[in-house]
Amino acid sequence: MLQIEIWINMKVRFAPSPTGMLHVGNARTALISWLFTRSMGGEFMLRIDDTDRLRSKDEYEVAIESGLKWLGMDWDLKARQRDRSDIYESKIEQLKVAGRLYPCYETPEELDLKRKSQLSRKLPPIYDREALELSDDKIKAYEEQGRKPHWRFKLNHEAIIWNDMVRGEIKFDGKDLSDPVLIREDGSPLYHICSVIDDIDYEITHVVRGEDHVSNTACHIQMFEALGAKAPIFAHLPLLSDKEGGKLSKRIGSLSLKELQDDGLEPLSVVSLMARLGTSDPIEAFCDIKTVIDNFDISKFSRGTPKFDPDELLRLNAKILHEREFDEIKPRLIEIGLAELDAEFWNIARPNIEKLLDIKDWWNVAKNPVTPIIEDSEFIEQALELLPECPWSKDTWKNWANAVKAKTGRKGKQLFMPLRQALTGMDHGPELSELLLLIGYDNAKERLQSHKKAA
Ligand code: GLU
């Protein structure tokens, strides 16, 4: 049962930082946010979190957008944080006036030393607010040395409680958190404050993000309050683990959407997996995105760590392709240079492919010239004599193999391998029962006779 209230003016945002490619973990957050929004009839916003001017790159923004579109996502509005500096400035001023921002003069090295000393005394590495105790003389001295302040948000030391859509009730106490830095030494604002100001300005009602943001959320809630706004509803998704439950390896964790796309995966297999992984519902291969939306229920997501198995993606991919009708797939076959491939070929070959490009192997081995391997020509001649006449059916292979077996006394590998080698020039490949039909009588006959020509 859907437990989420029906929202009027529901608005959800996905807020990637364009400092790299979108990897599977981020893509999952994006998809879940989007499916949630679309399933509830809300508005979806793409917000580019590019406050880190040094690491943010236009090419990453372009790649992120094309990855999201590849998945089938769309958005109703888009904003970039770099275009909103004036808005941030006025709100930051408001926080300064209210005494919620204070200047700090520690260098990164001094802060690091503090942290190490706290840890060695078994104390949590929480900022000690030394900056609040600085005398005017000390501040003057720092400024004369050329030190520029960074600014921290002064958290109220009180309970912070919210009801998370995925994790249930979450409690923090302000005193257990470090006052977050909101403004760098060069005066530029950092993610936390920009994110909160944007969420307020764009009237975001729900924030779906990874559980690595839980303690940020505790700080953000106080920032929303300090700016006189109501915090949105939060859903913190557990981060993906590998299939054994361990941390995703660098290789898999950093798998980008672009790599999945280049690897020939169907976007719907990624969507199908992400819509269900980590929920109480079984993973299904969905054949269209509307059905995914119609069946999506964010209340099914749990706190348990979802296990990401790339092989599962492949299985879903295969299933989705196996359901595709020839007419649907035809334009893509033309795109990959298989304009001649017809419905009959598709229907026989499709249960045997995992990715669309696999169909090419079938096509090549069935229709393009091969160099048959014939080691025992006597055996192959006997097989040729027994090759059934047309029309062929799905039983043709079985009938032929049985006849050859009866005549020659061969069985198992001794029987199949020379036939495969003669018919395909390879010692592995798709099931011969299927392949034989695709090769067809004329090609099969020619291949079985090829040693005669060669002789
Ligand atoms: N840019 C942040 C990130 O990628 C956004 C987090 C959020 O959704 O607020 O982690």
3D architecture notes:
With 455 residues, the protein is of the alpha/beta class. The longest helix is centred in the last third of the chain and has 23 residues, at 432-454. The protein folds into five domains: 2-88 and 188-237, Rossmann fold; 101-158 and 169-183, Glutamyl-tRNA Synthetase, domain 3 (Alpha-Beta Complex), CATH 3.90.800.10; 250-323, Glutamyl-trna Synthetase, Domain 2 (Glutamyl-tRNA Synthetase, domain 2); 326-361, no CATH class; 377-454, Arc Repressor Mutant, subunit A (Orthogonal Bundle), CATH 1.10.10. The protein is built from 19 helices and ten strands. The chain is elongated, with a radius of gyration of 31 Å. The protein has helices at 24-39, 58-71, 85-97, 108-120, 136-144, 191-201, 214-226, 250-253, 257-262, 267-276, 289-294, 310-323, 326-335, 343-349, 358-367, 377-386, 396-408, 412-424, 432-454, and strands at 11-14, 43-48, 77-80, 101-104, 150-153, 159-164, 168-173, 181-183, 206-210, 233-237. The chain has a five-stranded parallel beta sheet with strand order 3-2-1-9-10, covered by helices on one side. The protein has a three-stranded antiparallel beta sheet with strand order 4-5-8. A two-stranded antiparallel ribbon has the order 6-7. Glutamic acid (GLU) binds at residues 15-17, 49, 195, 209, 213.
